[in-house]
Structure formats: C-alpha cells, structure tokens
Amino acid sequence: MPRRRAPKTAPRREARQARSRATVEYLLAATAKVLVREGYDRASTNRIAEVAGVNIASLYQYFPSKEALVARVFERYLARLDDALTTCLARIAEAPLWPGLEALLRTFFSLHDDDPALHRALLVHVPQIDRVNPMLALRERMTGALTAYFVQRRGSLRSTDPALAAHLVVTCAEAIKQRAVLEDARLLHQERFVSEVLELVRRYVVARPVSAARARGRPATSGGSRASRRR
Amino acid sequence: MPRRRAPKTAPRREARQARSRATVEYLLAATAKVLVREGYDRASTNRIAEVAGVNIASLYQYFPSKEALVARVFERYLARLDDALTTCLARIAEAPLWPGLEALLRTFFSLHDDDPALHRALLVHVPQIDRVNPMLALRERMTGALTAYFVQRRGSLRSTDPALAAHLVVTCAEAIKQRAVLEDARLLHQERFVSEVLELVRRYVVARPVSAARARGRPATSGGSRASRRR
Amino acid sequence: MPRRRAPKTAPRREARQARSRATVEYLLAATAKVLVREGYDRASTNRIAEVAGVNIASLYQYFPSKEALVARVFERYLARLDDALTTCLARIAEAPLWPGLEALLRTFFSLHDDDPALHRALLVHVPQIDRVNPMLALRERMTGALTAYFVQRRGSLRSTDPALAAHLVVTCAEAIKQRAVLEDARLLHQERFVSEVLELVRRYVVARPVSAARARGRPATSGGSRASRRR
Amino acid sequence: MPRRRAPKTAPRREARQARSRATVEYLLAATAKVLVREGYDRASTNRIAEVAGVNIASLYQYFPSKEALVARVFERYLARLDDALTTCLARIAEAPLWPGLEALLRTFFSLHDDDPALHRALLVHVPQIDRVNPMLALRERMTGALTAYFVQRRGSLRSTDPALAAHLVVTCAEAIKQRAVLEDARLLHQERFVSEVLELVRRYVVARPVSAARARGRPATSGGSRASRRR
DNA sequence: AATGAATGAGAATTCATTCAT
DNA sequence: GATGAATGAATTCTCATTCAT
What we know:
The structure is a homotetramer.
Chain A: H1 18-42, H2 45-52, H3 56-62, H4 66-91, H5 97-110, H6 116-125, H7 134-152, H8 162-183, H9 191-205, H10 212-215, H11 224-229
Helix pairs in contact in A: 1-2, 1-4, 1-6, 4-5, 4-7, 5-9, 7-8, 8-9
Chain A binds a DNA duplex through residues 1-4, 13, 15-17, 19-20, 23, 44-46, 54-61, 64-66.
C-alpha cells in the first residue's frame, strides 16, 4: 500500500463532456455512499470505483487520490451551508447585534439535514487538521465575518475583544451542532434545545442583558418562521 | 490488510511479571511516539513493534489489535485528567454553584500539556465515534456528574433543565479546549482567554448574574493558586 | 504502478536462520530465472515471488525493491569473476608487463560461462548507468589496479599515460567479451579469437613490440594451461 | 499493463499532409524530451502524447507502440552518423589502409554531440538486444563495409582475418566512444585522447607499423581540419 | 481525421496477524 | 514465553491501448 507522503487534492482533469461529467457524479455519489456505509478507512479507491461502476483508472483520471474525492464531497456538502450563511450574513448586515446573530445561528442550526449519515461520516472520519478540510475554511471565514459583525456593533457587545468573542461563539455553536448531528440530529429541530443554546450565546455576547421579554423579540430578517413557532 | 470487523480491545494477558510489564511499557511508549510522528494511519503494528524493540508476535501477546494499543494509550493519557477532575469534584461537593464550577473548569483547562503533540494526534486521528474512544466515556461521566451537581444546586441554576445545561457546558468547554490544543495550546495558559471562557459559562449557568465584583470572588476549593494570580 | 523515485537497494533484513536463508536463495534463483526467461521489464516482484514459491510480502522482508534483487543477483554473478581477477592480480604482482597482462586477460575471457543466458540478460537489460550496477564498481577497481600495474612497469609501457592506457584496455576487453557473450559465447573459447584480441592489446601496450616469436612465449604464472594448449 | 509480446514497429500510416507531419514531429520531439528527462521506463505513451500536445489516440494513429516511437527517435539520431560515415566511406574508397581508416574513425568520434543527454538516454535505457535497435543495424553495416575495406587492402593488413579485424575495430571504437559519451563527452574533443585511441587501432591493423612520423601523416580525405590542429 | 473518454490488466508495496521453533 | 519467519489479502496507482463521437 504505497501511500503518498503528501496526498494531492488538486483536481486532475476537468470533465467537459456530458459523459465524463456523469462519471464524476457517479464517483462522488459512490464516495459518499461508501463513506457512510463503510467509513473512511474502508473507503478505498477501488471500492469507490466499484460502487460507482467506473473503472479505477477513470477515477484516477479525475481525482488524484482518495483525499481529493473526499474533499470534493465535503466541499459539496458544505456548499449549501456556506451559501445559506453567506446569504444570511448579507441579510443581517444592518441588523442590531442580537437579532442578527440569532438569525445567523438559527440558519446554522437548521441546515444540517441534507444527509445526516453523510454528515456524521464526514465529521467523524475525516482527519480534522487536514489543511484541505473545507470545514476549516468555512469556519475561518465565519469567524472573520462574525468578528467584523461584532466590531461594527461594539457598543452592544459585552466583550471588549470581538475576535475572541467570535472565536468562542463559532467554536461553541459548531461543537454543539456537531455533537447533535453525531448523537441525535433531532435535537436541532427542537425549539427547547435551540433556544437554550441561543440563550447561552446571547448572555455571553450582548452587553446588558435585556429583559427576557425583549430578548425573545423576533430576529431581524431571517429564521422568522422558526422563531415564531416558539410561542 | 485484513481488517477485523469488530476490533477487539480487551487485554489478552495480564502482564504480571516485571519483564512483561516492561514490554508493555515499551509498546505503549512506541505507540505514542509513532502516533505523534507518523499519524494514526501510518502507525502499523509492525512499525510500533519495531520502534518498541519488541517482537511483533509479542505485541500480539499483550494487545489483540492496533486499536487496543491506541485505546490503552488514550486511556492512560486521559487518566490524569480523569483523576484531576474526580478529585476536584470531590472537593467541590459542598461548594456553591459558581465557585465550584469555576474550579472544575480551571482544572479542566489547566491539565492539557502532558504532551500536546500526542494530544493533537489522538484528537485528530482517532475516529471519534469509536465505541472504544475513552474520551467519550470520560465525557459522559463528566456530564453525569455535572448534571447531579446542577440538580443539587437547582436554586442557583438559571436553566430549568440541569441535564441540558450540563450537556452544553461540557460540550462547549471540551470544544474550546480541543481547539486550543489543536491551534495554539498557549491560550489555555492565558488568563485573558480563560476568564473570557469562564464568563461565557457563568453567564449561562448562574441564575441571577451576580455583580462582576462578586463573580470574581475566589473559587471554592481548588484552582486557587491560579485564581489568585488574577488579581 | 507507483514507482519509487530513487529505488532503494540496501538490504532490508538479514536472513539468519536456515529457513529464511533458503527463502532468500529461492528468491535470487527465481530472479535470475525470470530475468533470463522474460527479461528485465517483465520481471516483476510479483512474478519473481511466484516463481520462487515465496509470498510477495516475504520478498519485501528481504529486498526493498526489484532493483535490490537484481543488484544482488548481479553481484553474486560477478563475485566469481571478481575473485578470479583479484587472485590473478596477486599472482602477477611481480611479473613483467606483457606476460602478466596476458594472464589477466585470459582469466578475464575464460570466466564467462557460469550461465551465459543470465549473463546476457544482465548485460542487456540492466540499465548501465545505475550507480548500483556492480559491474561499474568492478570495472573501476580493475582500471585502478591496471593503472598501478602499468605505473610499476613504466619502462616497458609504450604509452606515457598509464591511466589512459588502463582505461582503454579495460574498455576494449570488456566490450569484446560483452559482445561475444551477447552474440556467440563460444568465441571466447576459440584460441584464434582470443589470441587476436591479445595481439590487439599487446601491440598497444608493450613499448617495443617484441618479435612475434618472443611475444608468444608463455605468460607469467596463470592461465598457463590454456596458453600451452595453443601450441 | 498489457504488454505486447512482440512490439510492432512498422509505421502505421504515412504522414503525408502537412498537419500530420507536424504531429509526427511533435511526437518525436516529445519522445526525445521525455526520454532524456524521465528515462525509458517512465516514458509512457500517455506522457509523450501529453508533452507533445497531441491526443493519445492520434499518437496511436502514427505509431503502433512506444517501441516504435523510440526506435524512430533512435534512427533519426543515428541518421547523421550514418550519413557521415557513408560519405566518409565513399571518400576513402581509394585511400590507403591507414589514412582511410583514421579518417573514418575521426569522423566517428567527432560526431557525437548533437544532444549528449539524448545519446546517453538512448544508450543506457534502450535494451540493447532489441532487434529493432537501429544501432545494431548500423554496427553491422559498418562492420561489413570495414571488412570489405580491409579485404581490398589485404596487403597492408596485419591480420589474416579481415572480418575479425573489422569486428574488433568496430567493437572497440564503439565501446570507447560509448563510454566517453556516458562518462565525459569532452574526451572525444581532446586530441590527446583521440590520438591514443588511433594509435591503439593503427598498431593492431597496419601490417608493419610505420614510423611514428609517417603514421601521423594527414588522413586521406576527411577529418582534416581536426588532424591539422594537431601540429 | 481528431479527440475526449474509457478500461483491463497489472505493478509495487504494505498491513494485520499467525506459526513454528 | 519470546522470536524469526511467513503470508493472505488489500491498497494505491499506472500503463498501453481502444472506443465512440
């Protein structure tokens, strides 16, 4: 089993024609499937090609390594989340501190269910420090955006260190969601759970905790439907 | 590479004699070393035996699989943390809600540096859902203990769901520490960082946020030295 | 077919017990056989292991690569020649220029027939510039020894550059033998052929070409049987 | 890697049109380049096509195999040498034994530097017994021509076996040049080196070694510029 | 005539694990 | 009880070559 010292992840040849694009799709679908059913370690390139019904050599024409395949699957999986968060960030650009942040968190928590099993597999099996790990990139982008968001609302922010606050909020929110996905994804649909998490964040972030009544006012722009459900 | 479907982890034979015990020590030390230097995937039993200077057949006399070796290393690595937390829990058995919890958290954050590289390797490479993962066990025990702790102090607890509160506190604390270990272990020594984290937890946990002055009173029993350093 | 960038040739583990030594022998024999029958390119490690009746993994326990196997076979094959030449060099240490050189050349030409097919395969298929090529080493040693031999007999040497003379003599002798092995190994047994070659060398090396009669006097110490056969 | 048992080398289709011819040129240039830079083994048809900027299927439209490509490159590389030797042979058709032979050898030694790296790659990596190896063909032609040349000058020839003499001369000359190309191509430009080699041949070939003065007379027709440099 | 795509076959190498002494 | 040796089963990755459009 000759292992590459530094697994390459750059795409090899781009699929242009319809047929090859289909091949790539089969491969990615098979990767997800194998990842879910057999785990990262057992997901060999041969197995993936077999499940995809694609020749192993074709696999290597489009992906230079197993890592590249998994990274691509991961990226795709995160793309929706990325889009949703980016959209939400735009929407709350003018919102006050808390309603905006609440909307962002609700968006984050609500978008988890494309394929929970795949989500689990990706979280658990993909080594987390990999520079390629697209979740790291997303996390960093989010931390940056949130820091900027906090800086612009310094007046309402309790902490004097917006970057640190953003770091902690992102870390906690991600961890809470991650554990829920791994252990019981339904939690993320339960308003009892979600609002408890929101409370945790709000009390940390917002400068002078407003009265509970005001705090529970509807979030700025998004997640409204969900927010109203609470009551 | 014939992979066992269900990796065994039970110890095979008690190493009672001195020589046997030495062999086991060599093996565990080698496992840690290889894990750190080459990562989980590259840590083969052959390699470990070689580094340990132990015959591969002897390795299998004491450990039924690679997983068993790694699990044992992990357990050992967590043993100190486990001890410290258990001790601390005993000490704060009678303490009020916050000082006790602060002491517990400080203990948790301060005990991270036996071998950061090993810590990193274990965190990153060992699949996290593994039933064998001793960190899951520790986490569950801690969540249970904290739930009990909260139940006993219901009056001071803000949340009406002690179990959920414990879950969130454990999840966040673990995630924050884990990220620090992976990215910059020195953070856990910086009072600015630690007290920000404590603030996050305190505001969530404690019923009526006491004034800052009272909140910063010294913790109940342990972590005192560190706490006193603050002022 | 993941190819090593720099093929390793250092031996891996030495075979100590009788059983493993036998395994190594089988492997080397199989390497020679496959080399002869199928050529260097077709001689895969899998094929060699199969022919040897040895598990492929065992092969890799003793040899880190195909190159290492071939190099070992080559070394062994050259060992006899090396020995014979070294012995002869000792014998002619005190001999005059020509008889000594003739003895050396006769030794060189006569020792070719352990396994002509293997010889052919080695000559043809093993890339010649490979630093590992043991023939290069032998050639260099011989050139050095011959240079020293010439220096000590400067008076009788026609050329004023012993190193260059040695270089040319070694080059030509090797090439002539090599071509004979490749095309018609019997030539090396025909005195007509051999003495023509000797004449070529003698006329180049010896200062004042002695008369043919004297030149054909018996060589100093070795190769005598063969030499006497001539007349 | 499905290897043909008997690699075909016949050209598949005449490249009559301009574009086709250009394609062929690109392919041959790429073959040479890859051969030099990566060696024979690594020179895959895919790689060659890629470097040539030619579709792999087009490659197979003009060359039936990798061997055919390499053989064609080899032929081209030898064509100049072949031409030069043929021309020289014509020129010395009426020359006396030695001056003619000297001219031929000087021509042979002087024509080596089109692309030493390619020369080296071809010498080292192309299996030498290959029936396709164009150097064998050239060598045979030269040996034949030289035999005829010797036969016509029997009177001046020392040996009584012109064919054997030609064989030895060709073998030695080729070997000397080959080693020079592999180890230090500049040697072939140094008159000290070349004239030593010439001396070796002259003493073997010419019946009654003429005096040094006469032997160094200018060669018959070609290589004169170089020869004149000597004095 | 050219090209994008596909592929069967196989090469090198390693792993986890068990035997026989 | 320790050790040298052995091994079945994978794994990654490439090659020469052919199709289908």
